[in-house]
């Protein structure tokens, strides 16, 4: 018995999880919409429940009294009919009913009453009026509260005829549906207006903080001052403090790297000067080659460590930059094509962005004969594809290609001054802009490097 209980609960648990997943997919995702839902929904539900139960109870009592009054009027007319000789009082009953009771009375020939109609489940009038007539009439009767929406029809079987009575629905029934609906709608609109105005003011500082953090992540400067609730101001102050620390760390790193760069360049310049004074020999030619390679490697290491983070953002013509890279590729004797669509100007750090593209194109130039540069700016995202027809990179090693100092093929690069930092620098630059660099197979048969940048 104890083992069967969890199995019996498994189906309801699965059903609940399925419903929770369905509800989660359809719930609003934004904080503003969720906050409105949290504030408004409980109030509207509580108000509707209170209004329904209390007002419905009140109107049920009113309907019961009205139905009892109609039942008394009908019973009185029946008693009046029985008290006088037959045939002499119908005109009087019709006149009294029409003038004093607002009920139309007709006498039909003696015939069986219509069969009882199906009672509507939610009809308060049908149940209440039937009960009151049963208490006051000792004769068979039939009522219709559905056939004509604003008229209640009552038929009572007499000894020699059938009395048909037509009364207005409002004489026996007090409807609260319109009042309830109007009250709920008006109150809900007031609540929504107040909650919307309040929450908009609370959400706006959070959106400003998110926008400032996003712009700072892209390397752009934006004016920001903490506002809003106490917790939001604390988060804003923490963001500004973090921003100051990051900028101070970047400034210190830039200063240190500038010093290191100056010292290393001074030493390399001394090497070059000494070799120039020695003269041209076979030994000095090899030494000059080593010094040049060391200079290029030092510049690559410093560029990777520096990250070009101190450069200011500016509107840059990306299409012109691609054309320059195409010209450089053709100058090397390789085939190149470019295509760009959309807005040409994009806010980036020009030197850093060009270095990113140059590293990707340079990687393609080393191993391919044809290169295609394609750019698209759709107003939301800048996408640049760099395709080549080279040997490509295996899928399982594409992530490793972005690791600093990692070489995919040592034997292929032994005779080249390749530091293994080109792709790492490109990805670092794009991530500092808030974008990304990915590798995949190219339609040309080689490698495709894709640069994506939110604009």
TrEMBL record:
UniProt key word Kinase: yes
The enzyme's E.C. designation: 2.7.13.3
Localization (cell): Cell inner membrane
Single GO term (MF): ATP binding
Acetylation found in the keyword field: no
Transmembrane region(s): 31-55, 179-199
Any one GO cellular component localisation term in the record: plasma membrane
Keywords on record: ATP-binding, Cell inner membrane, Cell membrane, Kinase, Membrane, Nucleotide-binding, Phosphoprotein, Transferase, Transmembrane, Transmembrane helix, Two-component regulatory system
Major localisation: membrane
InterPro entries listed in its UniProt record: 2C_sensor_his_kinase, HAMP_dom, HATPase_C_sf, HATPase_dom, His_kinase_dom, HisK_dim/P_dom, HisK_dim/P_sf, Sig_transdc_His_kin-like_C
Domain HAMP: 200-251
Protein name: histidine kinase
Taxon lineage: Bacteria, Pseudomonadati, Pseudomonadota, Alphaproteobacteria, Hyphomicrobiales
């Amino acid at each position: 018995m104890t083992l069967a209980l969890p199995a019996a609960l498994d189906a309801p648990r699965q059903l609940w999880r399925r419903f929770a997943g369905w509800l989660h997919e359809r719930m609003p995702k934004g904080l503003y919409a969720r906050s409105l839902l949290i504030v408004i929904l409980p109030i509207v539900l509580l108000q509707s429940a209170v209004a329904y139960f209390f007002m419905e109870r009140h109107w049920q009592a009113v309907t019961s009294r009205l139905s009892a009054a109609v039942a008394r009027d009908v019973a009185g007319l029946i008693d009046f009919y029985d008290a006088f000789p037959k045939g002499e009082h119908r005109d009087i009953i019709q006149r009294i009913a029409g003038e004093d009771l607002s009920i139309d009375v007709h006498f039909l020939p003696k015939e069986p009453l219509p069969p009882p109609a199906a009672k509507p489940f939610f009809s308060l009038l049908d149940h209440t009026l039937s009960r009151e007539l049963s208490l006051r009439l000792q004769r068979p009767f039939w009522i219709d509260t559905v056939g004509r929406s604003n008229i209640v029809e009552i038929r009572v079987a007499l000894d020699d005829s059938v009395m048909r009575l037509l009364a207005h629905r409002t004489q026996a029934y007090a409807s609260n549906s319109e009042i309830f609906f109007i009250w709920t709608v008006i109150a809900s609109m007031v609540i929504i207006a107040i909650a919307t105005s309040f929450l908009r003011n609370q959400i706006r500082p959070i959106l400003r903080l998110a926008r400032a953090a996003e712009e700072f992540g892209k390397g752009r400067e934006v004016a920001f001052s903490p506002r809003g609730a106490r917790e939001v101001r604390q988060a804003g102050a923490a963001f500004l403090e973090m921003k100051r620390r990051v900028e101070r760390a970047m400034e210190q790193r830039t200063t240190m790297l500038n010093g290191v760069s100056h010292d290393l360049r001074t030493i390399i310049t001394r090497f070059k000067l000494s070799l120039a004074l020695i003269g041209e020999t076979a030994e000095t030619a090899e030494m000059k080659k080593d010094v040049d390679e060391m200079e290029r490697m030092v510049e690559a290491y410093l560029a990777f460590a520096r990250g070009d983070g101190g450069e200011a953002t500016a509107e840059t013509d990306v299409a012109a930059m691609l054309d320059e890279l195409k010209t450089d590729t053709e100058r090397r004797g390789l085939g190149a094509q470019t295509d760009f669509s959309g807005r040409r100007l994009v806010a980036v750090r020009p030197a850093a962005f060009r270095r990113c593209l140059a590293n990707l194109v340079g990687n393609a130039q080393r191993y391919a004969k044809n290169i295609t540069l394609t750019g698209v700016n759709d107003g939301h995202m800048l996408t640049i594809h760099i395709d080549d027809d080279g040997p490509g990179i295996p899928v399982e090693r594409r992530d490793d290609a972005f690791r600093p100092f990692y070489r995919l093929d040592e034997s292929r690069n032994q005779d080249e001054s390749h530091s293994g930092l080109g792709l790492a620098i490109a990805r670092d630059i794009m991530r500092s802009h808030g974008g990304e660099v990915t590798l995949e197979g190219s339609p040309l048969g080689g490698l495709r490097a894709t640069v994506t940048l939110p604009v």
